[in-house]
Specification:
alpha+beta, 4-stranded antiparallel β-sheet, 55% helix, globular
Length: 616
């Protein structure tokens, strides 16, 4: 699946149009997600009408689409929402009711404004105004994910009585005339309060404490009808654009299961997640202490710095020397800049994963086996702890963890590399992009760097040996982006750290070589590290996961010279062992082993099929 350049360019252009569409269409968030999933799938799967791309008809369809977008932006169908308490409040500019609320509930802040709030001239302040078509939230934090914990943007937590459970907020709504007779409702003391919107008031205020507050807008039927009509025209115009660019013909009907699986998974998350009353209304609430919580904070900081033209602070990314994953904060910040607080960029990357997995499996197995494995991957997460589960990737993407995005990019790079191993002369020109993909995955998830290094050594050797200097130049050029975190750490922190400071910290290295030597020589190890070792072994020895014994057994049996010389088995061996040895030193969380188990599953099944054929 090395993509043709014209296919990539067409997809990127169509994605820009899709982004315009999804940011403008006046539909509720669940409908927007479903539309985005289906339309993005069509952009990936449909063949291109190359003869139509430069025709006047295509340009006219795009102009009509853009005209409808401008009309929708001009019609006053969005309401504005200002959120105070994200930044320092000017008590002279808020209502008397809001002043009384602060004086009664937060007297310290009311009397000591400068001491209560963050105060930094170096860091950007959070944007308080939002424009929405619909409102249905169960958590105030959804308005701007994790801003309550962002540095210098919120109330300082040194006063014990101020925390996420009683954090004050003032929401000020301003509605256009079209919202007349709509209802703004919220729950206060477990009682529903609704305000009827009329044309006698300019703004409406909602006061409260804590993050868990249900607030929703019940719009009048005329306004809903207008939004439905506008949505219909916009969707029709976008489909018309697609019909001029793409041929609506799906060659592989099995691929239709991919968007169906995504929608089903997101519905399950929506029904089982108690923090959100809406189907992925925004980023799910991330509890303090998790990786996703920190990435959202840093992404807020990068986003505000970029919008304020403070590029120094934006590239700094919240740290002089990286500690957590270097790339994920920038990925989330980019997603926020384009789509706001929504998972659309995650969805784009993850939408390619089934295609990648299917194509990788197709190298090793027959069509019947591939379909069986893909059905398990998409709908029956029997091996979800091993990572061979679409559901598991989405489960961790809602937590804004780095693994789903990094592993998807890595698996695509690995697939491309296996193609090169099987036909070196044909795929030499794919190596620079493959190297770029490996490097990108390492920046997002540095634990992949060891495997990437060993996998890329053999292509490097061949490029040198057969004098492929043109490809070798671009190979080094694309691979050099892996040093971006190092340059960052040297420039901002004056410290030689290749990826992150966490690489050799106790938080990351759970058991050292000295610990293993101590066990072998003196039979001694601390109780904490003994428990950690048991936890590591528990990932391999589990009475409820007997399929792991088959996989591990087949790998051990398969190790011989002939298999190691096999051109398309060799990269699997390199990947398996380069992932395995790291695991015995790092955090024993199952998600760190996904790449190991996925590659081990493929190798074990392939070797089993080879041995079975030999016996026949």
């Amino acid at each position: 699946m090395p993509l043709a350049t014209n296919k990539v360019i067409t997809y990127l252009f169509s994605s820009i149009l899709l982004t315009l569409f999804i940011n403008v269409v006046p539909a509720i968030q669940p409908i927007k997600y479903i539309l985005f999933i289906i339309l993005n799938f069509l952009l990936i799967i449909l063949p291109i009408k190359y003869k139509n791309i430069l025709k006047i008809k295509t340009f006219l369809s795009i102009l009509i689409f853009i005209f409808i977008i401008l009309v929708i932006n001009y019609i006053p169908i969005k309401f504005s929402l200002n959120v105070d308490s994200f930044n320092k409040i000017d008590f002279t500019e808020i209502s008397e009711e809001a002043k009384f609320f602060y004086e009664e509930n937060f007297k310290f802040c009311y009397e000591n404004n400068n001491d209560c709030f963050g105060n930094s001239n170096n860091l950007p302040q959070a944007k308080n105004i939002f424009f929405r078509n619909y409102l249905k939230i169960s958590n105030i934090n959804e308005l701007r994910s994790n801003i309550f914990h962002s540095p210098n943007d919120a109330i300082i937590h040194q006063n014990e009585y101020i925390n996420k459970y009683n954090y004050p907020f003032i929401l000020t709504f301003e509605f256009p005339n079209l919202y007349k007779n709509s209802k703004l409702c919220y729950f206060q003391n477990s009682l529903e309060n609704c305000k009827i919107i009329d044309d006698t008031k300019i703004s409406y205020e909602v006061l409260g404490k804590g993050e868990k507050n249900i607030i929703f807008l019940d719009q009048n039927i005329e306004l809903i009808s207008i939004k439905i009509i506008l949505s219909f025209f916009l969707i029709s115009s976008f489909i018309y654009v697609l019909k001029n660019i793409y041929l609506f013909e799906i060659k592989h009907k099995f691929d239709l299961l991919y968007p169906l699986s995504i929608i089903l998974i997101l519905i399950i998350f929506s029904l089982t997640n108690k923090e959100n009353i809406n189907f992925l209304n925004s980023y799910f609430f991330q509890y303090p202490g998790g990786d996703g919580h920190l990435y959202l904070i840093l992404a807020n900081l990068i986003q505000e710095s970029f919008l304020n033209f403070n590029y120094y602070e934006a590239f700094r990314g919240g740290n002089d020397v990286f500690y957590y994953m270097p790339g994920m904060r920038y990925f989330v910040a980019f997603e926020k800049l384009i789509y706001g607080n929504a998972y659309y960029l995650h969805l784009i990357i993850l939408s390619f994963l089934p295609f990648i997995v299917k194509n990788l499996l197709s190298i090793y197995f027959s069509k019947k086996i591939v379909i069986t494995l893909m059905l398990s991957f998409l709908f029956l997460p029997l091996m979800h702890h091993m990572g061979f589960s679409y559901f598991q990737f989405f489960r961790y993407f809602t937590k804004v963890f780095a693994e789903p995005i990094a592993y998807t990019i890595f698996l695509y790079a690995f697939y491309r590399l296996v193609l090169w191993f099987t036909n070196k002369d044909k795929f030499y020109d794919t190596l620079p992009i493959t190297c770029l993909l490996f490097s990108t995955s390492c920046i997002l998830r540095p634990n992949l760097s060891s495997s990437s290094f060993f996998l890329l050594l053999i292509p490097l050797f061949y490029l040198v040996r057969f004098n492929k200097y043109k490809y070798l130049f671009f190979y080094f050029l694309t691979g050099s982006i892996i040093f971006l975190p190092l340059f960052h750490n040297l420039y901002f922190g004056n410290k030689f750290v290749i990826f992150t400071d966490a690489v050799f910290s106790d938080a990351n290295i759970k058991i050292t070589i000295y610990d293993y030597l101590s066990i072998l020589m003196f039979h001694e190890i601390s109780i904490y590290k003994k428990d950690m070792l048991y936890e590591m072994l528990g990932n391999f020895i589990n009475p409820f996961e007997i399929h792991k014994y088959f996989i591990l057994g087949m790998i051990i049996i398969s190790i011989n010279i002939n298999n190691l010389k096999n051109s398309y088995l060799l990269p699997l061996y390199i990947l398996i062992f380069s992932q395995l040895y790291l695991f015995f030193f790092l955090n024993p969380g199952p998600r760190y082993l996904w790449i190991f188990w996925i590659s081990a599953l493929i190798l074990a099944l392939k070797v089993f099929m080879i041995y079975r054929e030999k016996k026949r």
